Amino acid sequence: MQISITDVIITLLSIKPTYLIGGLFFYFGTYLMRAVRFSLLLNHSVNVRELVPLMCIHNMMNTIFPVRTGEISYIYLLKKVHKRTTGEGVATLVVSRVFDFILTILLLIVSAFFIHNIPTIVMSFLWLVIFILFLLLILIIALISYGHSFLTLFGRILAILDIEKTKAGKLLFQKGEETIESFEKMNIRRVIIPVIFISLFIWLFNIATMYLIFIGMKITIPIQNIVFGATFLNIAMFLPINGIAGFGTTEAMWTLIFIPLGMTTDEAIISGFSYHIISLIYILLFGLIGSCIIKWKNATE
Asked: Where do the TM regions start and end (predicted)?
């Protein structure tokens, strides 16, 4: 059977509004939890209510722009709207991504134990990805723990390249110092437990959103398969391989992941496009609302 845009439209129209509204509610929960996490990492210097619109815009930019360049929007908006330093933006973003990595790996491993007959090629790729993420995690933790040593090394590299006294070199080193100082102010040990639980809730809301949309599309695969597929898909989203708005990349990864997890080829292709469209509507809706709130706030100040 050849898949057409008509099949996707029929699938989208067949989903009951209850599931779409429920998915929207749970998806907003991810923004709320992210705002709580960032507020905690910023030592409550910016409250949750003020951070929610920023989270909406950040996620929209991260989705629209290719190779995860949208991450910069968080750092920019935090500085422009909330008067935080670039270093604080970089430090809190890096730490939040570290915890996202940790939860992704843990959920992937746990869900894999409850799935039978995972193809060898999928498991081989899984362990390769886990190994790469583990190395990246060690690197980031080392950066957080031994920031000044990294900064000294960075200064030497700038000197070797003979750019340490240029305007760009001075700016890079200054932002590096700000980031290290922000890591130190954050006091990771104090916030590690609540941040882990908040990160878990972010994942639970994400999975709940996907589960409701799956039910709406009348796709019945075990919940552990959904958890495994969602986390595996999220790993692909972490990597800087996304195109504009994720089109093409998301559908390809979705099909490769969910066919071995129990979907037919037709189901995987149609559900991949349908879920991507629904999630884009959620993201753009919240992103536009967040933009309007920040614009209104700036106009009234």
From this structure: 12-33, 98-118, 125-146, 191-214, 226-248, 268-294
The pLDDT tens digits of the residues spanning 1-26 come to 566 788 889 999 999 999 999 999 99
Q: Radius of gyration (Cα) for the chain, nearest Å?
A: 21
pLDDT at 51: 96
What distance separates the 2 farthest-apart alpha carbons in the chain?
Answer: 63
Report which of 204, 246, 249 is spatially closest to residue 227, judged by C-alpha positions: 204
* pLDDT tens digit sequence for 63-116: 888 766 788 899 999 999 888 888 888 888 888 888 888 888 788 778 877 776
Which residues form the domain of 63? 5-300
Give the residue from 205, 207, 231 showing the smallest Cα distance to 35. 205
> What tokens were used for 62?
């991260």
pTM (2 decimals)?
0.83
Q: Indicate the number of domains in the chain.
A: 1
Tell whether the model's pLDDT for residue 57 goes beyond 60: yes
CA dist., res. 99 & res. 83, Å (int): 25
